[in-house]
Amino acid sequence: MNRKIVFSLLLFLSIKEISSQPNALSLFWDYSEQMLINEGKWKTLNPDYNPKDSVSIRYFGYTFSKGLHPYTIHLEINGYLPAFSEWITFWRGYYTWDAKSQKTVYHSVNNNGSIAKGIVGNINASDLTLEFSITSKDGIVEKHKDIHSFSPGQIKSTSFVLNKKKWAPKNSYIWTPLEIPKGNISFMSTRDGNFEVYSMDMNGENIKNLTCNKTTDYAFSYTPDGRLVFYSNRDGNDEVYIMDADGKKLTNLTNNPAADRVTAVSPDGTQIAFSSYRDQNKVDLYLMNIDGTNVRRLTNNDHFEDAPSWSRDGKSILFSRDLKPSTDTSSSLPSNGEIFSIGVDGTNEKRLTNKPGFDGGPQYSPDGNKIAFYGPTPDKNYELFVMNADGSNVENITNDPLEDYSPSWSPDGKWIAYTKGNSQNYDVWIINLETRIKTRLTSQPKRDESPFWRYN
What's the Rg (C-alpha) of the chain? Predict the structure, then answer.
């Protein structure tokens, strides 16, 4: 039988089975569809959150998912701990249709050993009522009732506990979809033995090695048509290369005996900014056409300058400049980096930060109103900061004990991808700018770092 006919027949039988089921099952089926939107992820604020308590929950979360049985919905109830950048799970359970009782039943287990059992006692077009008992590992039983009201993009839950044969209000929450970023992220990793450029989905899956070379390859941006611009020492010297997304048509754009590194493609795809040692021992910034022609120097001084990035209108470039005095010979490493902006014609240079330690990795937000960068706090821990485009209103957005580097804005400006870790290991994370919820995308023993989003 034709595959399309088989599929159509199965779909017809499934719809027919649902339509023939009791009204309670049909209504629960409708609610299930709403539960599963946005990959089944929901959040609500904890009104009792205490930022001074490291184990205080900032957000509660629902995670719904389909079971193997067509009328089963799995549920996890979670809590987000900002101090640890981590979600923990309290309850794991499910709703499923019980043909014998002709009701939807609920079963769940808490991580403390408590067990919840109950039924959907009432369900109508506007809400669902779950009546259940919680039995602790010590055998103590409590009676509960939750009323869940569904509307587009929202679940309202109102909870009650049975006290002296009366339902006493316990709490009420408004749940909204947990934000999930879109797109694709590329990053650097040593998971195959040396730094290579990789790409992955926003859930940290479908990881692909893009450069596949035994020497160092390092990238920070794509062209609008999807070509990767990166620097590599595959020819014995750090040079700037461009290649197609499939790894073909590799071209060395610089071919210079000096080291050329840290590339950034202009938003219109016509120019590349990069750092180079070509004119003196100190690093300066240069521009060139996308084909490697018309190389011109953007900065010219005795300071170390690095990490160029473009404004979205292509008129200015952000970068980091080390202002350590030349008389300071205590270390060859940059130590007093500040964020600057400069016009692409080399004029209108502005200093935007003035704080101790090395501030680097600056990037404009997509709307041009904000700048993200990394730098040390007074206790010398590296964090991510966001400030206004004029350098005012500097805010620490990560504020955690690990080191945070290399911010990269999502195309919609709602997220920042970055590097988090310590001297033992680094991984790729993302943070939502509104909720400040952090999500780890990579987790393996080798080093993953410097993520960047594709804007096309």
Answer: 27
| Cβ neighbours of residue 308 closer than 8 Å, sequence gap 6 or more | 262, 264, 273, 274, 275, 285, 298, 317, 318, 319
Query: How many whole angstroms separate alpha carbon 238 and alpha carbon 254?
Result: 9
Which domains are seen in the chain, by residue range? Answer: 17-177 (2.40.128.20), 184-453 (2.120.10.30)
Helical segments of 21-65, H only: 23-35
Sheet-wide strand order for 370-376: 360-364, 370-376, 382-388, 395-396
Residue 436 to residue 433: CA distance in whole angstroms: 5
**Residues in the chain, how many?**
456
Query: In sequence order, what are the beta bridge partners of 430?
Result: 417, 439
Token representation of residue 327: 């008389």
Task: Quick: pLDDT tens for 200-233.
Answer: 999 899 999 999 999 999 999 999 999 999 999 9
Per-residue pLDDT tens over the stretch 28-85: 888 899 999 999 999 999 999 999 999 999 999 999 999 988 889 999 999 999 999 9
Q: How far apart are CA 412 and CA 392, in angstroms?
A: 22
Are 298 and 288 in contact by the 8 Å Cβ rule? The answer is no
Angle formed at CA 27 by CA 25 and CA 32, multiple of 5 degrees: 90
Question: Per residue in 436-451, pLDDT tens?
Answer: 999 999 999 999 999 9
Do the beta carbons of residue 113 and residue 137 sit within 8 Å?
Answer: yes
How many Å apart are CA 428 and CA 264, to the nearest integer? 20
- pTM for this one? 0.89
**Residue 343: DSSP 8-state:** E
The residues facing 420 across adjacent strands are: 404, 427
Written as one string, the DSSP assignment of 90-145 is: EEEEEEEEETTTTEEEEEEEETTS-EEEEEEEEE-SSEEEEEEEEE-TT--EEEEE
The answer for residues whose C-beta is within 8 angstroms of residue 201's C-beta and 6 or more apart is: 184
- Cite the beta strand spans of 323-359 per DSSP E: 337-343, 350-351
Q: Where are the beta strands (DSSP E) in 124-234?
A: 127-135, 141-151, 154-163, 166-177, 184-189, 196-201, 208-209, 217-222, 228-232
Backbone angles phi, psi at 19, to 5 degrees: -65, -25
